[in-house]
Amino acid sequence: MKRELTSWYSPSLGRDMPIAAYGNYGFALLLVPTAAADYLEYERFQLIDALQPFIDAEKVKVFSINSINNESWLNNEMIPEHKAIRHNQFNNYVFDEVVPFIRTNTSAETEIIISGASFGALHSMNLFLKRPDLINGTIAMSGVYDLTEYTKGFWDEQVYLNSPMHYVPNLTDENILADIRKSHHIHILTGSGSYEDPDASRKFAGLLDNKGINYELDVWGEDMKHDWPTWRAMLPHYLGTRF
């Protein structure tokens, strides 16, 4: 399996941002880390190993980026308004830098599916819904789509604009809705075991349904807890049966 590590100075974030790429060809799978983790998290927890058959078969090329959650919502020393600013800078980094990097390393026609687990699921869903013209779908695992779960009571317009549970009911831009509805890959996955919140996935799926957005909700059993064995099972399963 080909593995490449790259980094560049991000104008959006004002710091160096590394990225890992695995494989040669196939659609692009962009991985967003959980909580305070980094771009090698999915490799360390053997999810990349679980995806290797698809990578080696050239069905998928995987890209994994850093999070900046420790510089935003998980930073207890930062005032909340600045956390929101940093969150938006991360969004811009993905849209303005990571997507063009993927296009340069694949092709202009390559589909980009964004995926993440836990806090990475919220980021993945939010990034897709904001720019469905750039990102073609999402596989969101074990997510909670209400950003206030992470803001410790803080609320402002930017929290609203990055909290899918809040803005989706009010989404009326028909151009954005049309691009979202074009996607055949909106997958909302959750377990029902320890520390999972399947009702959060059900509630969010209901909002998509109300907007006429096609999606797949898949609630796994009580043996699937909020942990890496669940995600190592989920993601290869979906690559094998849906792509």
Q: Brief overview, please?
A:
The chain contains nine helices and eight strands.
Q: How would you characterize the overall build of this protein?
A:
Helix content is 40%, strand content 20%. The protein is α/β, with parallel strands linked by helices and 243 residues long. The protein has one domain: Alpha/Beta hydrolase fold, catalytic domain (Rossmann fold), CATH 3.40.50.1820. β5, α4 and β6 form a beta-alpha-beta unit. α2 (47-56) packs parallel to α9. The model has no long low-confidence stretch (mean pLDDT 96).
Secondary structure elements and pairings:
Layout: E1 3-10, E2 15-22, E3 27-32, H1 41-44, H2 47-56, E4 60-65, H3 80-105, E5 112-117, H4 119-130, E6 137-141, H5 157-161, H6 164-167, H7 174-182, E7 186-190, H8 198-210, E8 216-219, H9 228-242
Parallel strand pairs: 3-4, 3-5, 5-6, 6-7, 7-8
Antiparallel strand pairs: 1-2, 2-4
